[in-house]
Write a structure and sequence with these properties.
single chain; alpha/beta; 6-stranded mixed β-sheet; 6 helices; 10 strands; 28% strand; globular; binds adenosine-5'-diphosphate
Length: 225
C-alpha cells in the first residue's frame, strides 16, 4: 500500500522551464525508492514537491491518501548540503528538529545520541561542524533527519560527499536501521550502481521535459549481499 503518491505532477518554473510533465509514482510503505536520471531530469524538483517545499503547477501529492499542500511532520527532507548550524555542536544540531518541537533537553539528547551512534559519529557529539570532514557533516545531517521520526525520508544525494569506503559501510548500516524502523525512503541519485544496490523500486526519469520512462523493482537479494 502506498504511503506517498505523486499524481500527474507537472512543474513549470517561472522562466518557462518545463521541469516535470505528468509524473505519477506510487511509493510503498517501508520501501526505498530511487529517483534515477541524468542531470536536469527534475529529480530535485520532484523531491521538493513531495516534501511540500515547492508547489506543483499541476497534479497533487498524497500522503496516506490525503492530499498535502505543504511540508508536514510525516516527511523529513535531507538537504544536499545539510545546512548544519555552525555555532552548534553535533549533538545540538542533530537534536535540533526535536528542540523545535519542544521535546525536553534530556529526552531529545538521548534520541540524538542514539542516531549519532547509528551513523558512526559516536565520540563527535561535542564537535562543531567546522571540525568534521564533509562526509561526517553529511552523516550528522542524516542523523538529524532520523531523530524527528518522520515516516518518510526524502534524501537528495545524501552520500555525495562521503568517500567510497565509508559510503558503503554507512549505506549498509543505514539500510538496516531504516528497515528496522520501517521508514519509507525516497532517494535521489545519478549513480546506477547505488540505485541497484539500495532500492526496492527504481524510477527512471528522462529530461526535457522530466518524465517517468520506467519503474523497475530490482529484487536485489540483500541477505546474500
Ligand atoms: P535534477 O535534480 O534531475 O538535476 P532539477 O529538478 O534540478 O533536475 O531541474 C530540472 C529542470 O528544471 C532543469 O532544466 C533545471 O535547469 C530547471 N530548474 C531547476 N530549478 C529551477 C528554477 N528555480 N528556475 C528555473 N528552472 C529551474
Ligand atoms: P563483495 O565484495 O561482497 O563481493 P562487491 O564489492 O562485489 O561485494 O559488490 C557487490 C555488488 O554490489 C556489486 O555489483 C557492487 O557494484 C554493488 N555495490 C556494493 N557496494 C555498493 C555501493 N556502496 N554502492 C553501489 N553499489 C554497490
Amino acid at each position: 500500500d502506498a504511503i506517498v503518491k505523486a499524481v500527474s505532477i507537472s512543474k513549470r518554473y517561472g522562466d518557462g522551464t518545463e521541469a516535470l510533465s505528468d509524473v505519477s509514482i506510487e511509493f510503498r510503505r517501508g520501501e526505498l525508492t530511487t529517483l534515477l536520471g541524468p542531470s536536469g531530469c527534475g529529480k530535485t524538483t520532484l523531491l521538493k514537491i513531495i516534501a511540500g517545499l515547492l508547489p506543483p503547477t499541476d497534479g497533487e501529492v498524497r500522503v496516506n491518501n490525503k492530499t498535502v499542500y505543504g511540508p508536514g511532520p510525516e516527511r523529513a527532507f535531507v538537504f544536499q548540503d545539510f545546512a548544519l548550524m555552525p555555532w552548534a555542536t553535533v549533538l545540538r544540531n542533530v537534536a535540533f528538529g526535536l528542540e523545535l518541537r519542544g521535546t525536553p533537553k534530556s529526552e531529545r539528547e538521548d534520541v540524538a545520541r542514539r542516531y549519532i551512534k547509528s551513523v558512526g559519529l559516536a565520540g563527535s557529539e561535542h564537535k562543531f561542524p567546522s571540525e568534521l570532514s564533509g562526509g561526517m557533516r553529511q552523516r550528522a545531517g542524516l542523523a538529524r533527519a532520523l531523530t524527528v521520526n518522520a515516516d518518510v525520508l526524502l534524501m537528495d544525494e545524501p552520500f555525495s560527499a562521503i568517500d567510497e569506503q565509508m559510503r558503503r559501510k554507512l549505506q549498509e548500516d543505514l539500510l538496516e536501521l531504516l528497515r528496522e524502523e520501517k521508514k519509507s525512503v525516497i532517494f535521489v541519485t545519478h549513480s546506477i550502481e547505488e540505485a541497484v544496490y539500495l532500492s526496492d523500486q527504481i524510477v527512471l526519469l528522462t529530461r526535457n521535459p522530466g518524465r517517468v520512462v520506467k519503474s523497475i523493482r530490482p529484487g536485489f537479494d540483500r541477505a546474500a549481499g
